[in-house]
Write a structure and sequence with these properties.
228 residues; alpha/beta; six-stranded mixed sheet; four-stranded antiparallel sheet; 7 helices; 33% helix; globular; binds adenosine-5'-triphosphate; cell cycle
């Protein structure tokens, strides 16, 4: 589903964000990206949804070659992805319903289907009763859940999330992770960037560690021991 081959990202002459990063992610995997602040986690996610272009190497994502992909192909790529940003990126002047439905509107989905799918996505994150509220009337945790609903409304092949639990209390963080596991169980590939070691330990998934823009480790999901 996703292959990175000797990927490097240099923002300018001084800042090397990623260097010689190679790994693959199979369809249906659940992977954590971790590492200290500045390790390159956000940059890696930005490369995966083509907000940034690698300075070297190649990335294959859901049938697209991202390094050499023409700009006009970006919408086709993004249709297959759901992205949860660190800072939510909700539109303040639009209701929660409009924020989530917007993705479908852009894709030309009928009004009736927009309504049905938006309601379903908001129900998944427990916010169906906030349809008519505006983002600033919601708590940080609730805004985060709206951002997740927006990422899921299009049934993406791949869900990319940058610190999706950063603003949430531990119980809510656990709930969001349970939600991601459910989505993953339905076949969506999930990639989550996080600092949160205790969350990673609890989840028992594959973990890719970055340090100074390089892969420090790639630890497979622990397999459960079967005793006979
Ligand atoms: N737009 C940019 N221009 C120049 N340098 C940048 C830019 N974005 C990131 N960097 C640099 O690239 C490196 C990696 O940053 P990145 O945001 O990917 O790290 P991160 O692991 O996500 O950090 P954090 O956990 O703090 O969000 C850092 O040294 C950062 O200063």
């Amino acid at each position: 589903m996703i292959t990175l081959t000797h990927v490097g990202k240099q923002y300018d002459r001084i800042h090397t964000a990623l260097a010689d990063v190679s790994f693959g992610i199979e369809a249906g995997e659940f992977v954590f990206l971790t590492g200290p602040s500045g390790a390159g986690k956000s940059t890696l996610l930005k490369l995966l949804f083509r907000e940034q272009v690698p300075s070297s190497g190649e990335i294959q994502m859901a049938g697209h070659r991202l390094a050499s992909m023409p700009e006009k192909e970006i919408p086709l790529l993004r249709r297959k992805l759901g992205v949860v940003f660190q800072d939510f990126k909700l539109i303040r002047s639009r209701t929660i319903f409009e924020n989530v439905a917007f993705v479908l509107k852009v894709l030309g989905v009928s009004a009736a289907e927009q309504k049905q799918r938006t309601f379903r996505a908001l129900k998944m994150v427990g916010l169906q009763h906030k349809l008519s509220s505006y983002p600033l009337q919601l708590s940080g945790g609730e805004q985060q859940r709206v951002a997740i609903a927006r990422a899921l409304v299009n049934d993406p092949l791949v869900l990319l999330a940058d610190e999706p639990t950063g603003n949430l209390d531990p119980d809510l963080a656990q709930e969001i992770m349970a939600l991601f596991e459910r989505i993953n169980g339905q076949g969506t590939t999930v990639i989550v960037a996080t600092h949160d070691r205790s969350l990673i330990q609890r989840m028992k998934k594959r973990v890719i560690g970055l340090d100074h823009g390089r892969i420090a480790f790639d630890q497979p999901a622990p397999t459960s021991l079967v005793t006979v």
